[in-house]
Amino acid sequence: MASNTAMMGHLPSGVGICTTIPDILYVPELIFGGLVWILVACTYVVPHNPQGWVMFVSLFCFIMTFVWLVVFACGSHRNSSGWAAADFIYHGIAAFFYLSASVALAKVTMDMKTDPPSLNYKLDISAVVFSYTATLLYFVHTILSAIRWKSF
User: Fold this and answer.
1) Residue 73 CB partners (closer than 8 Å, separation 6+)
2) What is the number of other CB atoms lying within 10 angstroms of the CB of residue 70?
3) Which residues face 20 on adjacent strands?
4) Dihedral, 12, 17, 23, 39 alpha carbons, nearest 10
5) Phi-psi region of 23 (alpha: psi -120 to 50; beta: other; left: phi over 0)
6) What tens digit of pLDDT does each residue of 101-145 get?
7) CB 87 within 8 A of CB 21
8) Comparing C-alpha atoms, which of 3, 34, 31 is closest to residue 17?
9) Based on the number of CB atoms within 10 Å of its own CB, is 88 exposed (0-12), middle (13-18) or buried (19 or more)?
10) Sign (positive/negative) of CA torsion 88, 93, 95, 96?
11) Which of 12-16, 18-22, 36-40, 129-133 has the lowest mean pLDDT?
């Protein structure tokens, strides 16, 4: 069971990031972000601009979340309130980016619906669902990170 010791002014390190709130959300963020990245890369949509933005957001957030996870796992953050604030800011930006990418992806997906649905349409529907799931995960992580930051 996840403990809430990280919520009381303590940033975990090592294996502790797998057992504390909000840090337990890193793994689902990586999984759903990676799924968005893979599904969007598998499809071909004529308006490339929204798909390019979705690819940028999913790659950027995947890489930065992995780097953030490694920083916390290695204990490089030294348990300061500056790192707690940076965690809150990063996840807030990631939630905003994912929300904008999810809306753009949903719009493009709705516009390309055919009867019967094509394979690309089904892949894009899956990408939209996973993108909104990633948005929700980053949003929840932002709220929990803000609570932790304020408890320092």
Assistant:
1) 13, 14, 15, 17
2) 11
3) 3
4) 150
5) alpha
6) 999 999 988 888 877 888 888 898 999 999 999 999 999 999 999
7) no
8) 3
9) buried
10) positive
11) 12-16
Residue 37 carries which side chain, given as an amino acid letter? W
pLDDT tens-place string over residues 44-70: 766 667 888 999 999 999 999 999 888
Give 72-80 contacts, CB < 8 A, sequence gap 24+: 72/11, 72/12, 72/13, 72/17, 72/23, 72/26, 73/13, 73/14, 73/15, 73/17, 74/13, 75/13, 75/14, 77/11, 77/13, 79/10, 79/11, 79/13, 80/11
Under 8 Å CB-to-CB from 34, ≥6 apart: which residues? 58, 62
